[in-house]
Amino acid sequence: MGVGLEGMARRAVFLDRDGVINAAIIRAGKPYPPASVTDVVLLEGAEDSLARLRERGFLLVVVTNQPDVRRGTTQRKDVEEIHRFLAAKLPLDDFFVCYHDDEDDCACRKPQPGLLKQAADKYNIDIAQSYLIGDRWRDIDAGAAAGCRTVFIDHRYNERRSRLAPDIRVDSLSEAVDRILQDIEPRSHPLRNLKVKIFADGANLAEMCDLYRNPIISGFTTNPTLMRKAGVADYERFAKDVLGAIPDRPISFEVFSDEFEEMERQALKIASWGDNVFVKIPVTNTRGESAASLICRLSGRGVQLNVTALMTIKQVLEVSRAMSACPAGYISVFAGRIADTGRDPVPVMREAVEILNECGNLELIWASPRELLNIFQCDAIGCHVITATRDILDKLPTVGKSLNEYSLETVKMFRDDAIRAGFHIDC
Ligand SMILES: [Mg+2]
Known about the structure:
The chain is built from 17 helices and 16 strands. The protein is α/β, with parallel strands linked by helices. The longest helix is centred in the last third of the chain and has 19 residues, at 403-421.
């Protein structure tokens, strides 16, 4: 890159360091930097992901807060040694480091945009055409303050999130790169700009495998009703087949006992089937007794949960409190069923988003959608996930379609059906 481009502003990807290109050290759910170069572990696929960005002409600049130097727990030479190591292993152009702490009130410690601005000045970077990839609120806020597009890698840390919605939310660096490369395609498509994650709701293994190949599908949910309809007879066999085929995206499987003690045993068993398993627990049993204590116990035992069948804000508050120790979890509010009662689900969902954004470890699922438009309603209010059944997913190709073209197709459909039916009117 660079040949013939001297003098032109370049676009860059600003990369946070720990948790973005190398693994952060996790203690009590919070990320910390590796103390020295011997503790540095590159994240899987980092080299390949960065190479893909560089191929497309992006300058790759690390922007990192290293306050432990100011705090006296790390030496600057150790940080610099880590950067020499990273520069040798990965296609990176430069490192901009803030060694201050909050009390220094500097202009470079993220969420301040100073590091990005220093890099932009040095390399003539067009910030508005650039991206920041980060895993913490300080990164997202710094990127937004500088004026670039922000990509949040969600490692589900036990800490607060940015109050600013990132432009793109993903689960890994490679996914971040996929989304950036899609984003710079010149054609505009409404699906490309969605922040909401789409989970496919289903219980047909072949269909699930098919959807797994579609990058727009970020996860899967199942439920006993769908499994019964799909003819699943052996629950555990089915779950293991699914997990064998889909090892790296979240999948929810539901308990089916009506007694909390038995539910707990089922939940622990289901959780043991895979790291990407989320155990679905209904908000109450069939007697209407709250599952909150069970949810609290399972959360404390480190089980990833998806608490389901909620419809009220009171339930969201109770369940989110019960899930405070949960390593990562979803709360499924049945927006479609709320709509079936003649109530607009959007205000309830918006309030639920605000509650869960305060939690850090939880995401809201818009469950039981009724139409494709719900994906866009969900996205507009910052709801994290929507589950969609096959009938809704099948309509995705019509997103953005010309209404004139669609109108004409509709007229033709009526005409063709009348001819096929052999209708005639004597006149
Ligand atoms: Mg980080």
